[in-house]
Amino acid sequence: MRYSRFEDLPVLNSAIDLAAHIYDFTDKVQFRRRRSLKDQIERAAVSVSNNIAEGFERGTNKELLSFLYISRGSAGEVRSMLCLLDRIPAFRSLSKENILLKKKAESCSRQLKAWALSLQNSDFRGQRHVNTRSKRAAEAARERQDFLKELAEIRAKAEKKLTDKTREQNKTHR
């Protein structure tokens, strides 16, 4: 499925969910005396969704890919910081939340990697490169696929009918 708005992307919504949970997490009392740590993890979390949006709006797959990898790097940065918190005694009481946040960040990374791989294997160069000629070619390819699908369905029905008819004839000859 092609998305026309970045707001509809499942990975963007996962990334925003991650950032919202990070903000809830950093609102805890343990972060009050560690402003730079709090700011860094919040900025990294917000960077995940912002880079998805910016890459999507650029209009070429090459630029989108670049921003997806930056976004993936930010998700990795969030996980790295959560690993650091595991080793700081003041944050041990938050370990259950920390585990859930790591899973959310990992999920974002996996989604971003899958999307990037699909883009790398695609012939589509991006929205910026779409013109009337390429739109016509894409429409013709879709129409061809639809026709071939319909043809396959008709053949399958005909073969089933023929098989059923042959079975009936064999029953009556017995």
Quick recap:
With 174 residues, this protein is mainly alpha-helical. It is 77% helix and 0% strand.
Instruction: Please name the CATH architecture of the largest domain.
Output: Up-down Bundle
- Overall pLDDT, averaged? 89
Q: Mind telling me the CATH class of the largest domain?
A: Mainly Alpha
Order of helices and strands: HHHHH
The named CATH superfamily of the largest domain: 23S rRNA-intervening sequence
What features would you describe in this structure?
The protein is mostly helical and 174 residues long. The protein has two domains: 6-129, de novo design (two linked rop proteins), CATH 1.20.1440; 131-174. Helix content is 77%, strand content 0%. The chain contains five helices and no strands. It has helices at 10-26, 35-58, 61-86, 95-120, 132-172. Helix 1 (10-26) runs antiparallel to helix 2 and helix 1 (10-26) runs antiparallel to helix 4 (95-120). The mean pLDDT is 89.
Structural key phrases:
de novo design (two linked rop proteins), single chain, 0% strand, mainly alpha, 5 helices, 174 residues
Layout of helices and strands:
Layout: H1 10-26, H2 35-58, H3 61-86, H4 95-120, H5 132-172
Helix pairs in contact: 1-2, 1-4, 2-3, 3-4
